[in-house]
Structures are given as C-alpha cells and as structure tokens.
Amino acid sequence: MERGNYWQRMRRSRMSRRALLRASGRAGVGAAGLALVGCGDDDDDDAQPQATAQVQQQDQPQQQQAQQQAMQQQQQQAMQQQQAEQQAEQQAQRQAQQEADAEEQAEQQAQQQQQQATVGNRQYGGNLSVYTAPNWDGFDPHRTNLAHPFQVYNDSMGRLVEIYDNAGPVYGADLMSLPEIPDEETYIFRADQGAHFWDRYPTEGGRAFTARDAEANIVRQIDALDAEGVPDSRFARQAQYAQTAPIDVPDELTLVCKTDGPNATYLETVHMGYSFMTSIEAMELWHGTWMEDQTNVELVSGCGPFIPTIFEPEGRLHLERNPDYWRSLEGQQMPFIDSLTWVIISDQTAVETAYRNGDLDTVTLNVLAVEGIHEDFPDHIRFERGVVLPLAMRFNYNPEMPDNPWLDRRVPYAFHLAMDRDAIIDFVYLGAGKPSAIQHINWYHGWSIDQDTMRTLPGYRPDKASDIAEANAMIRAAGIEEGHEFELVVADIFEGLYQGASELYQNMLQEALGVSISIRLEPYDAIFGQLATGNFPGHMPIWVGAGTGDPTGQWNARLVFGGSENWEHYNHPPTEEIVKTMLVTLDAEARREMATEVSWNLLGEDDRYGLDSFAGFSVMGNGIDTSIHWPYYNAPRRSTHQVWEREGWHWRKEVWMDTTHPDFPGDRA
Fold first, then answer.
1. I need a labelling partner for 70 at 20 to 30 A (CA). Which of 1, 43, 524, 538 fits?
2. pTM of the model
C-alpha cells in the first residue's frame, strides 16, 4: 500500500455527498459530463466520416451532392441539438449552482445564528444535577473499573489528549498538545497547554502539569503492581501501555513515547479509560490507600474543570468549579456551571420523580418513561444515542478452575444459541436497542459483520426453534444431562435497575436447555474480584465495556492470552495472531476487514476453526439511550447526538445553564 494513496482516500472519505455535488457544479461538470469522463475510444468519433468518404469516391456526382446535402442537414440538426442540450445543461448547472450556493448560504446563516444564540448567550452559574447508579470502587484513576468513577474522572481529571468527537474519532489537545509523529513508532507530546493541578493538597499552589507527571502515570500502569509490589490485574490498561517501549523526558515540557513497532491505536491508549493523569505526589502518598479508603474524596489530585468536595456513598458526589481551570472555549474560560452534583439513585421511578420535580436537569430512562415525561413537558428536549455498554453473558475458560463446565465449547455455544436477544432487548430496553455480534456497536461503526448478515446467523436469527433444537443437541453431546445445575452471577445493580431481568434469563435458559439455573446476586466490585482471580462461574446479564469504534486496542488486551482484560481466559492462537496484526496495521480499512474476520471467529462461524474460536462472552445487544433534558440545560451537540461511552468524553466543562429561563431551579447546591 502506498501511504500517499491511503491519505488521499482518507481525505476523500471526509467529503460528504453534498460537498461532492457542489464541487462538480463549481467545476462546470454536469451529470452527463461526469458520466462521459473516461468512457469510450477517441477513434470512434472519426469512424462515420471515414466510411462516408469511401462511398463518395464510388458514387456518381449527383449522389455525392445529395449525400453532402443530407450530411450537412444532419450535421446542422446535430449541432442545433447539441447546442440546445448544452444550453439546457448549462441552465441546469446554473440552477444547481444557485441552489447549492443558496443552501450553503442558508447553512452558514443557520450556523452563525446558532453560534450567536449559543456562544453569545453562554452564561456562568448554576448547579448541574445529574444522576448515577450506586456503583463505586474508589478514587484510583488507574484501577477503578466502574462507570460512576469513570464519569467523575471525566469531570475532574485530564488525559494527555482527549477525544473531541467519537464519530471519527476526532482527537484534540488536553493536558498536552496532539503529538508530533515523525515516524510510525515515535510520539512526541508537549506540555504546552498551560495545564496545572488544583490548588489543594498535595499540590498547593497549583503547580504545572509536567512531562514527569505523564511519565510517572504511564510507568505505574506498565508496572501494574500493588502496594506490596505484587502484580495487580486491576490495572486493566496495562496491556496497551506495555506496548510503550522506552519513555524519554528530555525536559519538563517534552514527553517522547516510542512503541515496540507500528501501533495503530496508541492515541486510543492515551485518551481512553484508565488513562487519567494524577500528580506524582498523589501516587507517592496514596498508591496503597486508594484501594483501602475508597470513599475518601480528599484522595484526589487532578487538573480538571471540577474538584470533588463531598462524597456521600448513598447520596451524592459533589464537585465544585475549578476557579483556576486553564482552558477556554471561544474566549470564555471553562467551566461555566458553578458546581456539578452526581445524585446516587438506584430506582428508576425515583429518578423520573426527581426529574419531574426539577431536582435533576437531564435523565436517561426507558422509552416509555421519556415519552410520558415529554407528553407532560412538551418543551423539554429529547435525544437518543447508542450505548457501548452491551448486554452480554460471560463464560470462564480457565482450565485451572475445578469442574469447569465451559471448557467444552459446545456448552457456552448452546447458551449462546438459547438466548432470545429480541426478547431480552424488549424486556431490558423496551425495544430501544439492537442485537450486536461483538461488544462494539456493529450497527453504528461497521467494524463487524453487518446487521442484515448477522441476523441470519445461529443465535441471532429470528427462528428460535432451530436455535433451541441445535442448542439441545450441542449440550447433550457435551455430556450435560437434563437438570444439571449451573450457578450464574448477576450484578445486583443490574437487577436493581431492571428488576426481573435475571429471572428472564433464568427461565429462558432453563426452558430452552432443560437445565437448572441458580442465581447469585453480587456487587460489581465483588464480581470484578472474581474476574481478576479467574474463579467466576459465569455471568448473566452483564455489561461488557467497549470503546466507540475500532476494537483493535481492546482486542489486544481481551483476546490475547494473558492480556490484562482477558478475564475469560480466551485462548485461540489464530485469532490472537489476527488482532496482533491489526495493531501494527496503519491502514484503517485493512483493520476493518480483519475485524470482520475476527467477528466470524468469535461467533464460532469460521469453518476452519469451528467452536474452538468461540468467544468467552456472548453479546445480546446494545441499548439506545432515550434521554430528555430541561430547556434551560445547554450541552454540546456531540454529547447528545453521538454515542454514549464512559471512557472518552469530558464535555461537561462546556455545559451552561440559562439562568434567566423561567424553569431554571435556582441555587440547589
């Protein structure tokens, strides 16, 4: 592959259909002209005159004169017709150009009006109140694994770079500027953005963020050791950061990272989850304390727009505006709100009531609840976005676990077939979701088997009778008799949010497979501990974390044997070889093709491997967030019209409240 051609294709891929049409119009090329470019042979234009000349030499003068008159008449008619067509085409081009220019002018005016309405009226003040479920495992920025801490870190810490918009993705500078990449293995970051830590212990005075801080954060994750120096599997980003070869800090502002070979996803490594940056002082003071004292809000040191000040594990986590935040938006210092409160609520009815009472500014609820709110509050703004926390069932392929039933791949495959994904999505999300083949949203990003093809495959096809018949044959052939008992772990938070979900799974599996399913409810942190030790019996239903598009980085942690996120002990060398090749393949389209091949393997649908390559998790599907917010709440468009994910965004620094709106709730901090 020639890199020049690749980048040309990438530039072309960024042009919209509308832009292409405008470009062709401005070049004076109409639809007919485009169709003719490069078609036919130039010699064809002279064929008819040559044949006519030969006839003229043989015929009588009268015939020649008659033929010449006829030819002249035909040529004149052809010229008139051509002129008419050219005039019509030119008129059509002028009209198309006028329409395109008018449309472009209207778009520009609309954008200017929107910018004036948004930027010109952007205000300071107010407390943003949002809710979260009670899932918490501490303030360690590199070892916590639950959604709520990630959200809080997005608001209070920074990364080397940020993902500005995940529909691309589009990266932006954060604590450091976007790196210079002089070759395929070198990334030069510079701490030139003015980032500095909060003016509170242990960084009183708000010292500058330096390349030394960045180095210490990365090395901590590469080493992945607990306070006693024992390897700690809770450093889930270790596999990605371990791809960093030497780190060089030539001065306080410059960080040079080299990878041990070309790496297609290194920017993902430094901006996604577990990549938050804290101070050297905090790591030295609290490396061990973070996991022992998980609710102490004082054990946080960051550079972000909000500073955590109050944590009530059963009530709220409150963050105050960082008065010395170093970033601005179009000339205005961020953040705009005075404070941010995460209200901890587990019951969805209570969430809806709090929103209706004005105690919450925006909520995500099931589609029926959102529709009901909108009927009562028609001026409130609804929005939807895909969720990259897919529902899945997870198996355990650890050969050292005694009496492990999942080691015969026919057993997990039978469970995979027995799951009625449409029924699960209807129950959990009231139909607001789609089945997915892998943990990344294949119907949004195109990094997997397309949706239509997937729906013809076992486990995803609407004909569940065939799936169940095949599942029974599989599980009996594996030696699992009727009535055999399986114990499966369910996250208590999931059952709390979607009461009856575990019973749905339980009945579905028992009826389809003729086995007995017992349910054990566990807190998420306890489940994670079992994952880390490889002693979990199997999970359902469970959320499986995923990125927003390219799965290359995560697969190299999840599908490589011994990888830091390979909690299922998945071990299939041919699949592992593909994902390792993806990591060093810089051509995104080539990686996309390999990702599709991996998807076939994970589903056990490749004839070369059969069930030997079947994944350690079976994905049910991805939900679609149905959300609503009060009219005084103003958030960046990308936060409400793209994909929700826990790891990459920290856009709440851009949120502002219209404090003059009649519905604005006033001071409730």
1. 43
2. 0.69
By the 8 A CB rule, do 539 and 393 touch? yes
**Terminal alpha carbon distance of the chain:** 57
Residues 458/394, Cβ–Cβ less than 8 Å:
no
| Type of residue found at 595 | A
Contact 139, 149 (CB under 8 A): yes
> Which stretch of DSSP H or E encloses residue 277?
none
d(CA 269, CA 275): 7
b/e map 239-274, b = 16+ CB within 10 Å: bbbbbbeebeeeeeebbbbbbeeebbbbbbbbbbbb
For 121, residues 6+ apart whose C-beta sits below 8 A from its C-beta are 658
What is the rounded CA–CA span in Å between residue 47 and residue 59? 19
Say if strands 244-251 and 254-259 run parallel, antiparallel, or are unpaired.
antiparallel
Residue 359 carries which DSSP code? S
Helix (H, G, I), strand (E, B) or coil at 471: helix
DSSP H helices, 455-513, are: 464-477, 492-497, 501-513
Measuring CA to CA, which residue among 260, 211, 214 is closest to residue 240?
Answer: 260
Report the sign of the C-alpha dihedral through residues 189, 194, 195, 199, in that order.
positive
> Backbone phi, then psi, for 608, in 5-degree steps?
-70, -35
Over residues 332-354, the pLDDT tens digits come to 999 999 999 999 998 889 999 99
Q: Whole-angstrom Cα distance, residue 397 to residue 617?
A: 10
Pairwise CA distance, residues 377 & 374, whole Å: 5
Q: Which pair of structure tokens corresponds to residue 291?
A: 């996991």
Report DSSP state, residue 200.
S
Rounded CA gap, 302 and 281, in Å?
A: 11
Angle value at C-alpha 361, between 355 and 364, nearest 5 degrees:
65
Query: Is the distance from CB of 342 to CB of 132 less than 8 angstroms?
Result: yes
Residue (of 663, 600, 593) closest to 631 by Cα position? 663
Token pair in block for residue 338: 């005075």
What pLDDT, on a 0 to 100 scale, did the predictor assign at position 107? 59
Angle between helices 588-602 and 573-583 (to 10 degrees): 160
Radius of gyration of the chain (CA): 31
d(CA 151, CA 532): 23
Q: What is the pLDDT of residue 333?
A: 94
Cis status, amide bond into 250, omega within 30 of 0: no
Query: 3-class DSSP state for residue 131?
Result: strand
Contact 611, 605 (CB under 8 A): no
Low-confidence residues of the chain, pLDDT below 70?
1-72, 74-75, 78, 82, 86, 89-90, 93-94, 96-97, 100-101, 104-120, 165-169, 441-445, 545-548, 641-649, 669
